[in-house]
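Postdoc handover notes: sequence design on the structure in folder B. Input tokens:
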């Protein structure tokens, strides 16, 4: 099938997933369906009254986002099923590596609304976002590497972002719609862990934007790999190609002369000499 037909199929799958609330009944038709709140499956659902009265139809901003990102050659999502696996570190390092070529224009978008760590990793703490007639201007690490994150908008970096799903999704849409990236060779999107509302909305908003695919980050532990399998299944459901899987923290290389072994019951006690005999 042609890329255009494939994009339409992806859009349809993403649109439906994005409109099914987490607490919906089994068989929910989706909040944008004409039968939302009226179908037999809706009986007893806590969202029934809201769905029945809400406006229906596809999100018009999806097409606007497609046009906005038409100047971006490659769009790559960085996902993880488990938190703390080094996803934001990988996103930052990938962006910096791509920007080593002066001929490449790179953007890094941090959509981890509740835990934005990219500003810290990129050395941009304390920077602010400026707005122009063309939209929000990214904060630049160097001439060919721009960054956007909610971390730039918090008055205090220690402030907790206590937002429900709709508000987080609205900001993600605004990032995709209003940031003035200009022409980019690569846009790296660092997402929060899991397969929650933010991921479904991201898939929906980018459904017509020809995303190259996703890189999934994991660690060797089984508890992380279990969640990575869920992330891969999520990508299959919404039609996002998995480019590859990165196993982070798989080993540690360091000179033996610098390694120290401590007693866990007495952190001040050095057992290095005992185990090196």
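Designed sequence:
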């Amino acid at each position: 099938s042609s890329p255009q037909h494939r994009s339409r199929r992806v859009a349809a799958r993403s649109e439906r997933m994005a409109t099914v609330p987490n607490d919906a009944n089994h068989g929910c038709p989706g909040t944008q369906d004409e039968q939302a709140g009226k179908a037999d499956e809706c009986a007893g659902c806590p969202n029934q009254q809201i769905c029945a009265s809400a406006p229906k139809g596809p999100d018009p901003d999806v097409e606007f986002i497609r046009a906005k990102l038409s100047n971006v050659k490659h769009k790559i999502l960085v996902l993880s099923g488990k938190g703390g696996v080094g996803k934001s570190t990988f996103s930052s390092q990938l962006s910096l590596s791509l920007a080593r070529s002066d001929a490449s224009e790179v953007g890094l978008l941090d959509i981890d609304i509740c835990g934005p760590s990219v500003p810290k990793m990129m050395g941009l703490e304390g920077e602010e976002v400026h707005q122009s007639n063309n939209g929000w201007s990214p904060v630049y690490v160097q001439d060919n590497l721009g960054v956007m994150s909610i971390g730039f908008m918090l008055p205090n970096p220690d402030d907790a972002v206590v937002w429900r799903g709709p508000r987080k999704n609205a900001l993600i849409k605004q990032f995709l719609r209003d940031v003035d990236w200009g022409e980019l060779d690569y846009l790296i999107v660092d997402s929060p862990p899991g397969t929650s509302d933010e991921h479904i909305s991201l898939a929906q908003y980018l459904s017509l934007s020809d995303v190259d695919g996703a890189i999934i980050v994991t660690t060797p532990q089984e508890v992380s790999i279990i969640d990575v399998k869920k992330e891969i299944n999520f990508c299959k459901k919404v039609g996002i190609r998995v480019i590859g899987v990165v196993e982070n923290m798989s080993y540690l290389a360091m000179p033996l002369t610098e390694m120290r072994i401590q007693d866990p019951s007495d952190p001040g006690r050095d057992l290095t000499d005992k185990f090196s005999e």
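Context for whoever picks this up: The chain has a mean pLDDT of 84. Don't rerun without checking with the PI first.
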